[in-house]
Amino acid sequence: MPIDLFRNAALQIAAACLLAFPIAVQAQSDPQPSKLDSTGSFAPIVEELLPATVMIRTYGGYAVAGKNTSGHALAQDDPTSPEPSGTSASGFIISADGLIVTNAHVVNGAGSIIVSLLNGRSYEGILIGQDEHTDIALLAISADEPLPVLGWGNPDSLKPGHRVVVLGNPFGLGLSATEGIIAGLDRDLLTSPYDRFIQIDASVVSGDSGGPLIDAGGYVVGVNTAMMSWCEGCTGMGFAVPADLAMEVAAQLLENGRVPRGYIGAQSQPLTPGLATLTDAQGQAGEIITRVEPASPAMAAGLQPGDIVLAVNGTHVTATQHLVELIAGLPEGSVAELSLWRNGTPSQQAIRIASAPAGMAMQEPQSEVELSFFGLVLAAVPADDETRRELAIPADEKGWLLVWTGGAERPGSLAPGDVITHLDGIPLPDLAAFRTAEARLASSRKDAVLARVWRNGSALFVPVWSKSVHRSVKSGSFTEE
Fold first, then answer.
1. For residue 211, is pLDDT > 90?
2. Of 88, 105, 203, 244, which residue is the catalytic one?
């Protein structure tokens, strides 16, 4: 069957699957009875579910690497060269008609996709759509008989310590199962605004990407995505995209070929107790705006860095990245009501929702200067576009690259590699502005000020302590809430 006709046929499955997806999750909203055998083994579950788990091989082009975090490698399918033999990965069938969920990094850039089943049959895979933000992709195959399927479970029922099994195709050796436990929930690897990974202690290695994470009831509770290890060859931690998020993305990909998301053009970070104190927002909960994009809805609405968003349309902003998720769920063209806290005063602001763009990377110093009162050594950021791309700084941002912190790094504070654009609200576009800021801060003798920085492509506010506080920290006499 020609590929274009097949793609149309696959898309016609949309209505049934879009209805089935939420029903599947709703049916599994409570913890399900265990299907482990009398010895506590996953063997009966693995035997039942492996036929609906698939092996994926991609050919041509360059496979795209999985998510990376701050220098800690996530071991995934090796993207370093377009091998003639192809790249191995995994997936699982969610529709008897042949819809398959896998990772976006598995199929991104692939010239052709071959999907193989446990029974030895192979099919050409057609890419319906992919979403890089969540690393989820949807494929389809055309089989001449109904295919076995896996059911969606409810990751909200998971708790650390619950047993799970990873199904996949490790190193392309064939379908396998690895048992483990849930080690943590809602993990943010800082690779996307939508990160909320399930952390598992079961091995997730090259080739397992895109395979299902199965609970003791035999349901899919996650999509295996990444492995974080501290050194090559070290045992690390596995991470999976939660099933409810994967299911929602798959449904959107089936309907639209992409995931439409609301966007206002503002970056934010959680309001910590320390930031609340420095921004006159004690007792408030929400996220603080760190950057407003030029010509964005946020700029048109008058939002400013330092504004604190407390709620969107009456829904409180409470968790890490929750603001992004609340905005993403709003349709393009709609108007949202933001509850703000600015300079110690509450206010309301209407903002029109647009539809969204994407991300950036890190680099080296040039001339170095010292901000003596705070014990920081910084370097001017070169103005050329290539360096700015590597540092992941927008063209309209000017600042200084932090080279050394005086040995006084603390959790939640500055770190080498940060680009500082403002100190205590003072912009730092050039050396003259830098020296003016230094003199003003030295005369104020403040123990701490707020710095606005760029780190890994995102704008953040972080506290900076004076040398006197640094010395107290080193001697152990300083405590922070």
1. yes
2. 105
Q: 177 and 161, same structural domain? A: yes
Number of separate domains in the chain: 3
pLDDT reported for residue 454: 87
> Which of 83, 131, 133 minimizes the C-alpha distance to 110?
83
Beta-bridge partner residues of 99:
140
Inside any domain, residue 457: yes
Token pair recorded at residue 203: 């091995």
CA atoms within 13 A of residue 470's CA, in its CB half-sphere = 16
What does the alpha-carbon distance between residue 56 and residue 44 come to, in Å, rounded to a whole number?
Answer: 24
CA distance 447 to 86: 57
Please write the tens of the pLDDT for every residue from 34-45. 667 667 788 888
**CATH code assigned at 203:** 2.40.10.120
Same domain for 146 and 248, yes or no, is yes
Q: What range does the domain containing 149 cover?
A: 3-254
Query: Which one from 77, 97, 131, 135 is the annotated catalytic residue?
Result: 135
Does 135 participate in catalysis according to the annotation?
Answer: yes
- Judge whether 133 counts as a catalytic residue: no
User: What are the tokens at 90?
Assistant: 């995994």
User: In the annotation, is 90 catalytic?
Assistant: no
Residues 296 and 425 in one domain: no
Cα angle at 98 between 97 and 101, to 5 degrees? 135
Active-site option among 88, 209, 268, 339: 209
pLDDT greater than 50 at residue 17: no
Alpha carbons within 13 A on the beta-carbon side of 288: 26
Residue 317 tokens read as 């902003």
From the list 434, 202, 194, 210, the residue with the least C-alpha distance to 323 is: 194
How many Cβ atoms from other residues are within 10 Å of residue 241's Cβ?
27
